[in-house]
Amino acid sequence: MAQLTDDCFAFGGALVGVATALDDLLGRLAPVTQAEELPLRRALGRFLAADVTSDRAVPPHDNSAVDGYCVYFDDLDPRGEVRLPVAGRAAAGHPLPAPQPRGTAVRIFTGAPMPRGADGGPGPDTVLMQEDCRIDADRVVIPRGIKRGANRRKAGEDVVAGARILAAGRRLRAQDLGLAASIGRTSLSVRQPLRAAVFSTGDEIREPGIPLPEGCVYDANRTTLVALLEGMGCRVTDLGILADEPSAVRQALAAAASGHDLIMTSGGVSGGEEDHVRGAVESLGTLHFWRLAIKPGRPVALGQVDRVPFFGLPGNPVAAMVTFLSLARPLVLRLAGSTEPAPRTFPVRADFAYAKKAGRREFVRVRLEADEGGGWKARKFARDGAGILSSMVEADGIVSLPEDLVDLVPGAAVDFLPFAEAGL
Ligand code: AMP
Ligand code: MG
To answer: Are residues 365 and 417 in the same domain?
Structure first.
């Protein structure tokens, strides 16, 4: 387990591009979770802690890909039909016990090992689908035209002995677990889940389910952030809503710092005089306001309570999500032991004009529609305030407009980031 430095989020204060900030910050972080061995059944969604190398080939033997007849290709006639006696039967799990003599065919079924060759020589190498053959008394009639090696699956065609089949840092999916099982593994070394504490602050923020006093709003962000973190495999402690009261916030943060690998909140860190989170974090550790050149955004507060990373996201629900996706998510993934590549973007056509401020990256919520040319066009939402959470619900993803762009014209190519790429 790595130890973070005392002030790993220190920041000079100037406006910084999100890619630069990310590069810089990722370089300062290391995985903080320990490895544990888990049965395959319990490893879904965990980050692999060590490479998995196969000590065997899969499949272990050459075998038939179809139900049919297995022959020596050299016994066939390229100019016409051949009639071969059927000598033997090989089914999956029931290999032919003896070598197959030349000049014969074997009735074979999918997955059955290819028979051995006569006199220790090469065995039959070709399988005909039963639909392509005819039975005539005790013989099978093989048509002309089959290729040497047809319908034979080679030993090791899936996994070669000695191959690395899964790389450390990968998030385990169903097919990854299946592949591990296919080489005979019953367990894997995975990272323990990152333990995250999440809370909200603000005198106007109230718990859903209770009547809403005048001037207040329900807490949307905590539910979103808990779900985002759990979706990434974190084990989340929900600390609820902390009152805008310095000693309460301080106490809660100090308590959260033991037993958690990160603390995350939204709102209350913009530096206004009602924002008590800032003072509380600073009194327990360090806090830096990273002024990201993005919209929607506002500064993201990054700090440490003891040595536990603290993420203070903006309060506006869309800004909280966008800063989570563009900055917090990759940092959390690094702490959790992930080496997954960044979410991929895909080029689509903009179906809107957009006047943009130079020098910052802007994220525009869009819905994709098929365009006339067989590609996709991105439709922007009319309402794009940082508090319009319903637009995130309706969107398929976001278009990322680069720093140097000022005037987007309809039809221009833009980078589309599907929410699904970021696990949303
Ligand atoms: P702040 O960053 O505290 O200045 O908050 C900015 C805006 O986001 C304000 O309108 C807050 O009411 C709103 N906000 C802050 N926290 C939350 C939350 N947990 N859920 C929904 N809205 C919030
Ligand atoms: Mg506030």
So the answer is: yes
